[in-house]
Design a protein that fits this description.
The chain has 142 residues and is mainly α. Helices cover 30% and strands 3% of the residues.
Length: 142
Amino acid sequence: MTSRKNKIAELAPCGVYCGACPSFNKSCKGCSSSDKNQKRKSKFNCRIRTCCYQTKHLNYCVECDSFPCPTINKKLLRTHLGKPQFTYRHEIVEIVKNMKTMGLKNYSAFQKQRWQCKLCGGTVQFYYYKCNTCGQEQMVTS
C-alpha cells in the first residue's frame, strides 16, 4: 500500500468510501484525516481507526493479517442488520478485497465511480442512497 502520509482522504482505514458520506467535505474531512479543526470529531474515538493507525501502524485494515477482525465484525458487519441504509457496511469485506488487487488509487477511483449518480454525475450518499445533486434515489452495486 502507501505510506500513511499519502493516504487518500476519501478512504477510511476500514475501506469505507468516505466520499459517499453526507458529512464528507462539510463537517468532516474523512476518517483518514487527522485535522482536529473539523466539526465532526467522532472518528477520533473509532476503535477501528485507533487499531489500524495507532496500534498496528497500518494504512488500511485490509493490510492486517487478522482482517476481518473481531473489531470490524462488531463495529461494521454485525450492526444494523437488515437495514438497507447500512448495506455499505455489510459489504466492506468483499469490496475491500478490491483494494489489494486494484491498488489504492484504482480502488479509490472504482469507489468514486461506484457511488457516482448515473443520472447527473453527483454523489450517491450512503444512509439515504440518494444523489446529493439531483435527489434521485439509487442503489449502489459492486
